Amino acid sequence: MAEERVISPYFEKYQRLKEDPEAENLNKKNEALKVVTCSQLVYSQLVCQKTYYELASKLAFQVVGHLKKEEKRKKKKIAKKVSPYFEKSQEEEDVDSVVVGLGKEKKKKSILLSAAEKRSVAYERKCCDNTWKPPRSDFGLLQEDHVDDPWRVLVICMLLNRTTGIQAKQVISDLFNLCPNAKVASEVSSGEIEKIIQPLGLFRKRAVMIKRFSQEYLEESWTHVTQLHGIGKYAADAYAIFCTGKWDLVRPADHMLNYYWDFLSTITHTLN
To answer: Is residue 30 situated within a structural domain?
Structure first.
């Protein structure tokens, strides 16, 4: 049996080149083409990836820039200046930004009455033949202790402006000892009132308001409580509830007055 002759791959390749010289060149061209094609593919992927990252980076910068502009716009809007005239009139409008009675201070947006609402029947001046006497509740509103004097009810509403019932209760007795009625309040000096109500803050403004209100209260010309200095919706509603008995014609915005209003609604059949 003849042995099979083993030929070295080198000589095998050499033999093929002798038989077909063009085949090797074609193989080389094919290999080179594969390398070029692969390089182009890798390059294309790298270009696409670079383009993606550039677009993503550009978009991120745009988003951050937009957020910064929005934040600056909001800060500018918050820091908007208000004319001293409007700022003063807003503060004087009353008492609607407070919690009445015993509880925590809770600032609320003031609700202003329109010109027509200020002339409502609910806010008309109390007549001499009005015998309304509001019943006692379990809520212990400060106004309930002074329903016999509408002036005191309204002054209490002024004291409750931007403070709590607990704080106001601490100065009410001393204030009404100094100023038992509107006439005396209009005659005493603002400094004396300031000393008593100083713990409440804004004591100078409050003292001036109480004196001016008391002077106007003594006049006979006013027909609606809303015409008096410093009287807004909260004080006017309290006047209708505790002084004139027209509680069913108003709907308070203050939560403590609402408690008392609901209380009256549940016992309306027993009221005169």
So the answer is: yes
